[in-house]
Amino acid sequence: MSEGRGSILGAIIWMFVISLLLFWLPFIGPLVAGIVGGKKSGGIGNALLAVFLPAIVFGILLFFVATSLTGLPIIGAIAGAGGLILALAHIGPLLIGAIIGGILA
Asked: Do 39 and 32 meet the contact criterion of CB atoms below 8 Å apart?
């Protein structure tokens, strides 16, 4: 193959942008974003990392932002857990697409 190695950061960016553009397609949008991002990542392992890393970082950031805004760590933990659950709900089709794209890469 003449192509170079894939990029996890590039895959994350592609998945994010395509997910935003195709938000109105409930299952197909994240699936397409996952396929494109998985292909951009260069392999299945990198594709899986590109799927899960943003969701975990989003949940952690939401925890800290909610805690700093409310001043109550328990409320921040509840908001952070809710944000993490929402991010994980989006991961299903994105994960399937990333695996398919990683296989195609």
From this structure: no
32 CB burial (10 A radius; 0-12, 13-18, 19+):
buried
DSSP designation for 4: -
Q: Alpha-carbon dihedral of residues 16, 18, 23, 27, nearest 10 degrees? A: -100
This prediction has a pTM of: 0.74
Give the number of other CB atoms < 10 A from CB of residue 102. 26
Residue 27, Cα to own-chain centre: how many angstroms? 14
- pLDDT for 91: 84
Q: What are phi and psi of 25, to 5 degrees?
A: -105, 100
Q: What is the pLDDT of residue 3?
A: 53
